[in-house]
Amino acid sequence: MDLDAFGELLTPRGQRALAEAAELAGTDPVAAATKLRRTYDAALTSAALTQAALRERAAAKFGADAAVMYFTPHGLEQSTRREVADHRARRMGAGRVIDACCGVGGDLLALARAGCEVDAVDLDPLTVAVASANADALGLAGRVRVRVGDAARVRPEEYDALFADPARRSGKGRTFDPMAYSPPWPVVLDLVARAPRACLKVAPGIPYEFIPEGAEAEWVSYKGEVKEATLWTGSQVGLARRATLLPGGHTLTATGVQAPVGPMGRYVYEPDGAAIRAHLVGEVAELIGGRLPDPMIAYITADEPGHTPWASGYEVDEVMPFSLKKLRAALRERRIGNVTIKKRASAIDIERLRADLRLSGENSVVIILTRILDKPSVIICNPLPPA
């Protein structure tokens, strides 16, 4: 979809084409295109079908808003889930914000809803047109101004706060190297340094050495899946490391506590990924009165059941040194036909192991592949009810 085709999509004729394309969602794509081509030209037909498909995909991130929003494939991939964007916007607070890499506008919409006045730039004219159309579609155009511009040329010192979500995809796919972000990491850090306050969205796997001195790093998990890391500078900074669970809004911060190391108990716990990324496993262990079976691996064990939203708990049935033969026999004895396999610090291929186990039976179980004091081990266990 090019800029002209998108502009046509916003006309009354284009809106009719888009509505018809939405009704054809889930049908044979060739038949859908053939039907639309009886009324519309090839460019508008393609734009309408593409947009209808993107809206369907976007519902997982944007909920009901997706039905009236506009997207590009890359923009949707980069977009933040609405619940996460809203959390960030609440932390940002009201004021004048410059969004230096706005994409299709998911974050600027959250900021505007939170009371911010947002100026936004993006290098791509189509993306800017999409972001502007999204502000119009959701009734936020009065709080948002979007223009084509280079993030490196914005002046964050003229605003109350900077928001930046540098692109983390290239022609070769997703990049995990901050130096390959767009704009590049040195440019991003210069913007942050000049801003009174800043909120910088980055990949959750960002190496700690890239976190600016004095910044707070927050890892955000949504329904058990780590979605992003956010770097905060300025007056909203709290402690150096923070983890947040959504949609519940639970927050865990670093206290410096070190988890003790000790033998496997009756229960084993897997900390949420945000707590692991934020190096807060010790804090989670303290919440449940637990210890680490291995000092280098993020599993926690305890003798009594503990309940916290920060960890999934399992009751231990058996712990054994890893042996395919012994594991297969143990599962056969328990009549296990369905197994959930988790692993950490194990090189075993899960799908190959699943096939090698040759499961047969009516029961289910969880097995955890890990190391315990440097010995490859397997924990056979059953889930505890969620906290």
Fold and architecture overview:
This protein is α/β, with parallel strands linked by helices. The protein has helices spanning 3-9, 12-23, 29-37, 42-62, 73-78, 82-92, 106-113, 125-137, 185-194, 273-277, 281-288, 324-333, 350-357; strands at residues 96-99, 117-122, 144-148, 161-164, 169-170, 173-174, 198-202, 216-222, 225-233, 241-246, 250-253, 267-271, 300-302, 311-321, 336-343, 363-372, 375-383. Strands 3-2-1-4-7-9-8-10-11 form a 9-stranded mixed β-sheet, sandwiched between helices. The two termini are 46 Å apart. The relative contact order is 0.07. The mean pLDDT is 94.
Question: How are the elements arranged and paired?
Answer:
Blueprint: H1 3-9, H2 12-23, H3 29-37, H4 42-62, H5 73-78, H6 82-92, E1 96-99, H7 106-113, E2 117-122, H8 125-137, E3 144-148, E4 161-164, E5 169-170, E6 173-174, H9 185-194, E7 198-202, E8 216-222, E9 225-233, E10 241-246, E11 250-253, E12 267-271, H10 273-277, H11 281-288, E13 300-302, E14 311-321, H12 324-333, E15 336-343, H13 350-357, E16 363-372, E17 375-383
Parallel strand pairs: 1-2, 1-4, 2-3, 4-7, 8-10, 15-16
Antiparallel strand pairs: 5-6, 7-9, 8-9, 10-11, 12-13, 12-14, 14-17, 16-17
